[in-house]
Amino acid sequence: MKFRLLTLLTAAIMAVSAFSISASAEERYGKQKVVYHINYPGGEEDKAYMGAMRNIQNHINAVGAKNLDLKVVIHGNGISLLKSAKDAGALQTSVANLKSQNVSFQVCANTLKGKKLSPDQLYEVFDEDIVPSGVAELAHLQAKGYTYIKP
Predict the structure, then answer these.
(1) Which candidate, 31, 33, 51, places its Cα nearest to that of 42?
(2) By the number of CB atoms within 10 A of the CB, which of 14, 40, 73, 125 ranks highest?
(3) Whole-structure pTM value
(4) Cβ contacts of residue 3 below 8 Å, gap of 6+?
């Protein structure tokens, strides 16, 4: 009986602590506008891309999706992220999960043209996801107050 009570008490304390940490993190960080920049190859088994997706998810977990306007701008060699995500697997799951949390993936039209790719060769890229220039979009977003992060 004492063990059961102690277990319940410990669980309650942990739940309150987790809530406190989450609430204080949201208070600490407030609302944020962030742009993540991906223009590099993913490497073996898309390891670099998976790391970037984890960074983005950790960011969402810390700040709270409702407090975050997060965009991912992809150009150059980074286009392989969405090419690889086209195949079912962990990368596709990560991208889909982030999209379900209102993360916007923006793709450079110059890269598509230069690499002779169409949006249907990439995972879930639609006309509204394509920007004229990835680097110009980064500068545009920074001018609008977005914080730049290169994972």
Answers:
(1) 51
(2) 73
(3) 0.82
(4) none
What confidence tens digit (pLDDT) does each residue in 63-95 have?
Answer: 999 999 999 999 999 999 999 999 879 999 999
What whole-number distance in Å separates Cα of residue 22 and Cα of residue 37? 27
- Concatenating the DSSP letter of every residue in the chain gives -HHHHHHHHHHHHHHHHHHHHHHHHHHHH-SEEEEEEE-S---GGGHHHHHHHHHHHHHHHHH-GGGEEEEEEE-GGGGHHHHHTTSSSHHHHHHHHHHTTTPEEEEEHHHHHHTT--GGGSTT--GGGEES-HHHHHHHHHHTTPEEE--
Domain boundaries, given as residue ranges, for the chain? 1-30, 31-149
| Dihedral, CA of residue 22, residue 150, residue 87 and residue 113, to nearest 10 | 140
- Residue 22 has what pLDDT? 54
Give the span between the Cα atoms of 18 and 108, in whole angstroms. Answer: 40
What is the rounded CA–CA span in Å between residue 107 and residue 118?
Answer: 11
CATH no., domain 31-149: 3.40.1260.10
